[in-house]
Design a protein that fits this description.
globular; about 475 residues; single chain; Protein-Tyrosine Phosphatase, Chain A; 17 helices; nine-stranded mixed sheet; 3 domains; 22 strands
Amino acid sequence: MNLSIAEIAKAVKGEIINVNDEIKIKNIITDSRKILPDSLFFALKGENVDGHDFVSKAIENGALGVVVETKKNSVKRFGLQYENTAIIAVNDTVQALLDTAKYYKSKIPKIKKTVVAVTGSVGKTTTKEFIYSVLVQKFMTKKSEGNFNTEIGLPFTLFSLGEDTEALVLEMGMSGFGEIQRLSETANPNTAVITNIGTSHIEKLGSREGIKKAKLEILEGMDSDSNIILNADEPLLYSEKNKTGKREYFFGINNKCADFTAEDIKFDYDKNTSEFTVKETNNFRFKIPAAGIHNVYNALPAIITGKIYGLSNEEIQAGFNNFQNAKMRQNIYEFNGITIIDDCYNASLESVRAALVVLSQINKNKKIAVLSDVLESGNYAQEIHRKIGESVVENKIDKVFIFGEKSKTTYETIKQYDNTELCLYFEDKSEIAQALCEEAKKGDVILFKASRGMAVETVIEDFKDKFK
């Protein structure tokens, strides 16, 4: 990055308090403890911390400039106290961060026509990774990492772009209305994917129809000469056919009216692979290193994206051969003779069901699940956790370890179907690792699945420390 204070102030419609408008900025920072050389510090207000309280510390640590909100009484005081520091005053520092990222992206000439954005209730991270693995076969491609899918995270993906970047794959998350619209207006994607409409964030959005409305905000930052890829097997999305104002591509398995359909699907759960034919690609047979019907759905948008940007079937398959899923998303590996399914980054009813199907199909001795709460489920919490319990029984899981207040419903549902020792409930998750050590034997498989806020990965680490 090499932007002047004057450029940034113009991009964010801000007022420069001090005169140092030609200072060159090379790094954008939101943490006063992590100031890099030639940094501009954005004072963001979070749920628990207000960055304005750390403006002085950022300057003392070497920031060349700061972006603050005009409604803060400290703006003029900082201007007097730090006369050699550039200060940009704006109405909203979060919006200013987005506007700065948008401006910086506009200066990368090669990337303007190959920006792909992915959203959806379930599978958006895995879909993003599939699309990245395909596009990188032809383009110098960047992607959003980790949980950089928010109004704070996405700008930093844009700031990481280099002059040689030719393609960008972004994940867009949200918890309420308006968020995806702001992300889309910042990134201006040429191609957008909506994987599905589930129940994640239903607490704030009220219904699946509300979730669909929030996801469709991704269209707001796209021009008419853009592509939208939608799941034809989701009636709420298929009902948008011919309504989006974009070039539409529908994918599916059951809906044969989709533009791209997967057929003749075969799974090898022990090798963690799926194979399928797509007749719209001259019946080319694709193979992906991820088992389960949900992963076929995750891979189909990558095939369509590859076709949109001119890749051959062979190039798309080469991308799949190099696919690596993100951390804690159905990562299957062996540990001391135990198969671990680490799928605890996040959870919804749909993703828990999919994970239980994968667990049930792996050819191992005993199938064990460690489950906890699906968060942000609001008034639907009891129904969601009841259905998870039913899915445990339907998939004939051998043993289930459960913790979490909401998951008491899962436990009670399972006990209604099975009065044996199939299911154990723990008030304290720290007790689960020892119980797993006593239960699990070499040749067994254990699934770990819950919402990110339940930190189930700590149970995995405790188990690995204790199991010999």
